[in-house]
């Protein structure tokens, strides 16, 4: 066993997502003398779930190489020192410790001397530091990716040691997920804590309280540095280290013959949503599967510990106890019966309707925004068109990203033209209807959220590039050299074509729409199907559309065996979403990187169709088939009364977007770049959206209505039981709803009242009016023994029987109208801040800029002004590289200097990751 492998695992344990698990800690390499992957194989459950795809490993190695490039190493060191408020470096020196502790100590001493005598800053790659409180164990080393040494400004003859790490985290919508950054800084904090206790740190050198994380700033993996305080992270690390030391001392080195017993006696903290990246996942899951304890089934399903006592009776046959969420009861019931459980909700999504475009894609693991191929299908008033499939030979390139947008833009443009014609034809038949006020919306339909994330991230990237181009074109027009934010020569990209801009603008609209839960420019088929069926097995498994689809089809095709289905889905070669399985990713990457004369044959040894294009096409074919099956299942679900309500809400919002697009005004604004005024103005919009969403769910979803009614924190919805029918008497289980309250009947037993044939819907300009619901006031019966019993006199008297279980709501929650004939649901507000008004014309801003500055000002004009403002700051010496400390560039992830090195993951020969490295280590 190589010490290096043990060191990597033993230093990662403190920052691991599994550190709270006693079995994970108890199988530390210091205790078992081998890596966890080897341990898993020796106890009979070799790990596959945490295996790193070849393309992902090559991406990590490529990013590590870029971090070591002199140019980027100098940038990282400079940014770190400037971000900490230290003096400008007198020079930048880089060196490599080659993960050797003795060499690290020597280089630190040299760096300290340079810092105090010359003011130089040193960046050391590949440092090796004894693990905090484990210096006596040779294998226990922390290996930070780099450390920075700089002179202190508050003390002569002293220096700072700044710990750093490098993580090639993917940016989603220009941002890196906070949980990933947290984990990355925890690993940096472990290095800082270890360095603080190392006796060979030079005298006069102190560990800084902040750390540095090098992450990609753009799609080409060019590094940038993030600086953050490590105080809280180090406190957690100290706690974990102390805990780990106690356990290591209590658990002596395990002999090979005792491994199985040692692992078995350690209690696992199992969570199917997070444990999949642990190499012992299969072992722990099998332990639960073979257990005879009823509670272990609930653990296997991922039921929260506080909910298990309420549903354990479903497993052992004693019946449910207390008020468990209806969705949890349905999940357990489906698992026991092998049949998906209907939620009772009718259909509200827009998938499969004219104006929708079905999209599937195969994402490359070798690039944050890389796409191997894409397939799209447009739904027209005449029916479904054929799928159009495109395979990209250069998945990492900017050209590939623009081609993806061009293809989507073409489909969206055609869809808008078709629904516009249909809308115009029907406008004469509907009062107060016009395309300008509320056009028929268009939608992209995707199999899962990661597919949407990839598309929106590409759009976000291209929007930033386009805005930079507009500024640089202004510079050229004004006779200025186009420069990056850091003052280096820039290469002006080609402009977005019209079809590309349509897709980019639409996807950015979808990005902003995430703040509003009733918006649906992108329809997630998995989410849509989950509204109608609750699957058995682990709840997290339902995030895969093919798994959820099998449960949906079980209602007609017959029961499934949950564990067999879960294993079958995990073993499948393909996935329904954008991200590939490791096997498929490896085959495609090997075919992509094969020499030209071998490319058509690559992949044949994997047992699949040979050739890069054939492999990608087979992947897309599987995804297309899943989408078509899911649409067929949804087609069999009856439409809800409020399906048109959701369509109208999206139409209202897209009317604003179409004005943005037509006038090129604020249509390329990313959510992360909206100014403070816009964000503040969104608060009441979000509030109205949230209230309308809850009201629609209470009206249409039986499970949600039940959960709201039994939730002690919800005042507006309650359970009632029919105690008498002549007169109508109800026992209302609520302290808020009582005598004098006016209520509306939402559900009778399992049936939602709004879906009854006698209920009518009228779409009005400011509200949605429902007629035919039972609405009326409650009157106390005066019976002291039954203080929650009331007479009810609704205008529309429902057909009820004694004992019927009802869900009722306070009418004032919905509307303020006085009569009991109608329920008016207020339309949610639209996000029309910084958007053209319906009266704005293409010439409005140029003719009266002072009146239209905040509505229809084109991007070209706004970016020209920003370019002039940047040029003025640069002339005053307020921008990089003149100013110190460096000014942070909010768009730095979009563009880079023309001569900067870029990543090319396909240029190097494919190498396999070390056996001890898992996805948990990389992510």
TrEMBL record:
Region (Disordered): 832-923
Listed Low complexity bias regions: 894-910
Bias (Basic and acidic residues): 849-879
Identification of the protein by name: Uncharacterized protein
Native source organism of the sequence: Actinopolyspora saharensis
Record lineage: Bacteria, Bacillati, Actinomycetota, Actinomycetes, Actinopolysporales
